[in-house]
Amino acid sequence: MRNHSCCNKQKVKRGLWSPEEDEKLINYITAYGHGCWSSLPKLAGLQRCGKSCRLRWLNYLKPDLKRGSFSPQEAALIIELQGILGNKWAQIAKQLPGRTDNEVKNFWNSSIKKKLISHNVHAITTSPDMHYNGNSEEGFFSLNANPNWTLSSQQDQLYLPTPTPMLHGFDHGDLKLDQTNYGANLVQFPTPPPMAAPSNSSFYDPLWSLGYQPHEKFDPNQELQNFSTGGATQHYIGNKLIGPSITAPHYDENPLSSMIPKPCENISGNCCGMPYLCASQDLDPLSRLPYFPASFDYPHDPYVPNNHMEYMDMPSCHHRT
DNA sequence: AATAAGGACAACCGCTCTCTA
DNA sequence: TTAGAGAGCGGTTGTCCTTAT
């Protein structure tokens, strides 16, 4: 096996790091900074290659890293960003303070992807609304057949045809769009219809919020209305959201990695005093995405009260036909 | 209680990009 | 202009732990 150029002449240790090695690395970087990684191991008294030291520091030892499981908000943000950026883990991790690209990637591969695969393979493979030119590296995709919304995977920018006023701004967690140079509001909530309290089950899909077009007016008198979105059409009966069609922007040709979650898990809790049912709230962040304690405003966006969250009562996903 | 299977996550590999001489 | 070194990134593998049988 070939060694890295930085450790060609050294006999390097491999595998898991011992506490003693960690301590040496921490002590050295704390005192002197990492400087040139290739020369660090010798200076720090470590039998490792510089690359290994860098990885260990960045992914595990750095003091500002957040350890522990992902919160529902983090999970939702990862899902959203993966849908937009694809497997750009470093860029996704930048929107999650204290999380590393490796951590996000592992979380995606071990938790989210499996869930999406098991839930969505049919919905995605039969979706008529996915428009993608087949090249994940250079491609553009259009969002749900809306030719005016395109995302360049090279420039990582979403282009909207016209500026859309942020009536109900929503930066979704730590995502600050103006910092990431998207040049557009990726996520917007419309002026919401009067929200009916969920009856006995609710669903939430963080991707519902992607690409929402706020221009369409809601008419509470009309019995069935569709709000087209970037990733889904949201169906209303009266003022109750009954569910999106599951179509989402993707530019990864791997069908397994381009899944989006479908809102097929019953979720319960107490949101702004509105009780709702959950079949699996104790499972993991993904199944608990909409769950917040009572009287708990959505923690990342002071502009979006919880009662703007969207609910549906249908126990299955809806496809545009 | 023993063993197999699966999940989670740390670490490695190889490629690409950037910088500099 | 170009080659080499360092750094960064994404995909993959290996290892340990938990759960199921």
TrEMBL record:
<feature type="domain" description="Myb-like">
    <location>
        <begin position="9"/>
        <end position="61"/>
    </location>
</feature>
<dbReference type="InterPro" id="IPR009057">
    <property type="entry name" value="Homeodomain-like_sf"/>
</dbReference>
<dbReference type="InterPro" id="IPR017930">
    <property type="entry name" value="Myb_dom"/>
</dbReference>
<keyword id="KW-0539">Nucleus</keyword>
<dbReference type="InterPro" id="IPR051953">
    <property type="entry name" value="Plant_SW-associated_TFs"/>
</dbReference>
<keyword id="KW-0805">Transcription regulation</keyword>
<protein>
    <recommendedName>
        <fullName>MYB transcription factor</fullName>
    </recommendedName>
</protein>
<dbReference type="InterPro" id="IPR001005">
    <property type="entry name" value="SANT/Myb"/>
</dbReference>
<keyword id="KW-0238">DNA-binding</keyword>
<feature type="domain" description="Myb-like">
    <location>
        <begin position="62"/>
        <end position="112"/>
    </location>
</feature>
<dbReference type="GO" id="GO:0003677">
    <property type="term" value="F:DNA binding"/>
</dbReference>
<feature type="domain" description="HTH myb-type">
    <location>
        <begin position="9"/>
        <end position="61"/>
    </location>
</feature>
<dbReference type="GO" id="GO:0005634">
    <property type="term" value="C:nucleus"/>
</dbReference>
<dbReference type="Pfam" id="PF00249">
    <property type="entry name" value="Myb_DNA-binding"/>
</dbReference>
<feature type="domain" description="HTH myb-type">
    <location>
        <begin position="62"/>
        <end position="116"/>
    </location>
</feature>
<keyword id="KW-0804">Transcription</keyword>
<keyword id="KW-0677">Repeat</keyword>
